[in-house]
Design brief:
It is a single chain. The chain is an all-alpha fold. It has one domain (about 5-280). It has 12 helices and no strands. The longest helix is centred in the N-terminal third of the chain and has 30 residues, at about 75-105. The model has no long low-confidence stretch (mean pLDDT about 80).
């Protein structure tokens, strides 16, 4: 490893630090009419902390997509490319916070709930931000498709994920509605839904990353939809198996209804792990 490689690493880290700082102030401005985020965090409001930390972690994941491309021989040009795609990733994060909040938790003032310390909503926002970072990572990976393809894949991934989560809530989980429980502050429901969002994001990320840059937009969209659908079906099947063989002392309904947070963590992380494996199969 030579000194030039170290320079690139330092440059990437500094770009992320600057963008994460800008993200912090934008989030502070977004919530300024409800609370001072720094005061809430220093006062121990975990819900507010989850929103900010999720955004910063999601941005870091997205930045890995920027870094994974071929570096330019001109370090100045590479810096411009890194900042440009980093700004695109940051916009993705902010748009997702608005889009998925409205779609997944309709009729809820998330910022007001975070001020109250609603940890369940904070966890859902954390999952949403990490999921967005995963989609941004895949959609801006390297310099293969350009900004336009990044935007198309990002929008497609966001819409697909929201539709799939809503489908699950309306059709597959009618006995216990985790979204309604999250609105009521049920921490286990927040953990469960957050884990599911991240797992879905991992599948969609793999479906986006697996597409060839040489494909036409129509063929790329078809491949994405097929891979996403196949991955979701497999994930659902394996979720049922996880519910049967790993979480043997309880079940999903009891975890949410009885607010069994420890079991919810185990269930969510198991599903995220399964999504990682399935994602590699899609790639």
């Amino acid at each position: 490893m030579n000194i030039e490689n170290y320079m690139y690493y330092v440059m990437y880290a500094l770009v992320y630090l600057v963008l994460a700082t800008v993200m912090k102030y934008i989030l502070n401005f977004k919530s300024a009419d409800q609370y001072n985020a720094d005061d809430q965090i220093s006062g121990g409001n975990m819900a507010v902390g989850l929103r900010r930390s999720g955004a910063q972690l999601g941005l870091a994941i997205a930045m890995i997509g920027v870094m994974s491309g071929n570096t330019s021989p001109d370090i100045l040009q590479d810096l411009v490319n890194t900042v440009s795609y980093g700004l695109v990733a940051m916009v993705f994060m902010l748009l997702s916070l608005i889009f998925t909040d409205k779609a997944l938790l309709p009729g809820v003032n998330n910022t007001a709930e975070l001020k109250k310390g609603n940890l369940a909503i904070g966890m859902v926002e954390f999952g949403t931000m990490v999921m967005t970072g995963l989609l941004a990572y895949a959609s801006i990976k390297g310099d293969e498709g350009g900004v336009l393809s990044s935007v198309i894949y990002f929008i497609g991934g966001q819409v697909t994920l929201v539709l799939l989560v809503l489908l699950y809530e309306k059709v597959l989980a009618r006995k216990t509605n985790p979204v309604a429980c999250v609105m009521q502050g049920n921490i286990s429901a927040g953990i469960y839904l957050s884990g599911k969002i991240i797992a879905y994001g991992l599948i969609l990320q793999s479906a986006i990353a697996g597409n060839s840059a040489a494909l036409s937009p129509a063929d790329a969209l078809t491949e994405f939809l097929v891979a996403a659908a196949a991955g979701m079906i497999m994930l659902y099947v394996f979720e049922l198996l996880i519910d049967l063989v790993i979480i043997t002392s309880t079940n999903v309904n009891d975890i949410i209804i009885k607010n069994q947070a420890v079991a919810a963590v185990q269930l969510s992380l198991s599903k995220i792990g399964m999504a990682l494996i399935l994602g590699m199969a899609i790639l």
